[in-house]
């Protein structure tokens, strides 16, 4: 009889201990992580998670967990933080390695593109490519880059991203431009030929028509060159 009562007491203590703990199955964590990533990157991405994610036990009751993606681009080899919280305090953090192959339709340079060239379907092709981890997936939007001009020389085969393009130049080399010379309250308008490309606010050299002299001014939005003296 004593043995039976001892077993009942031990079972009761064990049950009480389990009810005051928090237990998380690794398989369920893995499933939730996959779902969270899918919500962010869509269904076309290839996602590779660790084969096994450990189970986790905590002596406290009512522990919860969440995933921390940080500010990283969700492509390539990344780490996702698995954070456990109890009463507003972080009690543990684990870094889970994840491999994401994110595929998007992007513009690929078919030929070398020079600085100032307009990005179009003549010098680029639309291809479905894996977006490397060095690029923000939002920065390879075809609608954004097409019609803009190359900010730098772009090599053949490169993905044309937001970082490589800019708005068309306000002034193009070889164009005839109006020169506005400002000296105090005096304004003189003349004309000349731009000797370099320039965006609004950038310096541009212009050869004046009337005497062949080269002046330096600032390109304006309306395409004229402002020279202040």
Spatial strand order of the main sheet: 11-12-13-14-15
Helical residue percent? 10-25%
For the largest beta-sheet, the strand count, sense and barrel status come to:
5 strands, mixed, barrel
Q: Tell me the β content.
A: 35-45%
Number of domains: 3
Task: Explain what this protein looks like in three dimensions.
There is one protein chain. The chain is an alpha+beta fold and 229 residues long. The protein folds into three domains: 23-101; 103-166, Alpha-Beta Complex (Type Iii Antifreeze Protein Isoform Hplc 12); 176-228, SH3 type barrels (Roll). It is built from three helices and 15 strands. The strands form five sheets. Strands 11-12-13-14-15 form a five-stranded mixed barrel. It has a four-stranded antiparallel β-sheet with strand order 2-6-5-4, with helices on one face. Strands 1-3 form a two-stranded antiparallel sheet. β11 and β12 form a beta hairpin. The protein is elongated and about 90 Å long. The protein starts with a helix and ends with a strand.
Concise overview:
By secondary structure, the chain is an alpha+beta fold.
Produce the secondary structure layout:
Elements: H1 2-19, E1 22-24, H2 26-41, E2 46-48, E3 56-58, E4 64-68, E5 76-86, E6 89-101, E7 103-109, E8 124-130, H3 142-145, E9 149-150, E10 165-166, E11 176-183, E12 186-194, E13 203-208, E14 214-219, E15 225-228
Parallel strand pairs: 11-15
Antiparallel strand pairs: 1-3, 2-6, 4-5, 5-6, 7-8, 9-10, 11-12, 12-13, 13-14, 14-15
